[in-house]
Amino acid sequence: MANLDAAFSALADPTRRAILARLALGEATVMELVEPFELTQPAISRHLKVLEGAGLIVRRAEGTKRPCRLAPTAVAEIDQWLGMLRRALETNYDRLDGVLAAMKPEK
Amino acid sequence: MANLDAAFSALADPTRRAILARLALGEATVMELVEPFELTQPAISRHLKVLEGAGLIVRRAEGTKRPCRLAPTAVAEIDQWLGMLRRALETNYDRLDGVLAAMKPEK
DNA sequence: CGGTTATATAACATATACGTTATATAACCG
DNA sequence: CGGTTATATAACGTATATGTTATATAACCG
What is the domain-level CATH number for residue B46? Predict the structure, then answer.
């Protein structure tokens, strides 16, 4: 799962998560994404490249503009991997419940 | 959500994801976690420190040993944040469906 | 107590990440 | 065509991550 590296790594940066949150509201161009941040345009462009590389966003060409929007695949992959942890946590929790239930009568 | 930085950052490393996958099977000591990897014990100890700092694992003391197990909180936080993306993707997908549905009759 | 085992920390090298400014590319518009 | 706008890339500095080896701490065991 080499792609999980890129996806989680992309999500580790707060600016990139903010960009994704903005894109959750709908498509946006690079300059529209630059505006709310106190960062330069090249910085945002590189963040977008990282997000695109991680499969978290897709882009199209529209004249000079390159609008970005959310891509579904990476989120699905992440969910799938986290599912493993979720299931394990549920299992362990059940086990703990079992232990507690077994202890109760003795007290 | 400063903690998401740490959580996603921790998950970005394949060794740490492998450690979590191992812990999904149940508690393990540091040396038990060192064994399957081609890494030194200090390297694993530091990965564990990162995972603990991110709230992904918890540890107890048992004599000389310090067994690790999965912690639930960080996964829940991650799920919550990803939920925002999931909902947005569903919404955008619906919107696309709507567009396609509106186009079909015209063809 | 003294040696062994389990784990953590320090010190260090190297690679990667993230920001900046300067510049390139490429479409648009008068 | 020439200027403006939108975006990408290059070059660079600095911080952080990841690994290593060497060493510290601390519990256990004979």
Answer: 1.10.10.10
